[in-house]
Design a protein that fits this description.
By secondary structure, the protein is mainly alpha-helical. The chain folds into two domains: 2-38; 48-91, Arc Repressor Mutant, subunit A, CATH 1.10.10. 36% of the residues lie in helices and 4% in strands. A two-stranded antiparallel ribbon has the order 1-2. The termini are far apart.
Amino acid sequence: MAEIEQVVEIVAKYLRHNTVAATEVPGVIDTVRAAMSRLGQSAEIAVGGLTPAISARRSVTEKAITCMDCGWSGQTIKRHLLVAHNTRRTNTALGGSLRTTIPW
């Protein structure tokens, strides 16, 4: 019974702040109920499917370094990673596995 009360509370707050047609209200309720039933279950993480924009051998040349995520090319990669990919030293694209090899 507590789950039904939570669904009602969430839907009521959503409907107070959003315009929804009367015919779409049951769909909102079903969506919230389904989301509530999935709470606590582990989410499947899709691994793979990522392909680099350029090969590792071609990513570093004498004149430029190329980002393997997007293909950007420039003289320094640090600023590009911070700005374009919001990557920090403790939050690398590979889950932190490069922390010991990246000096910044």
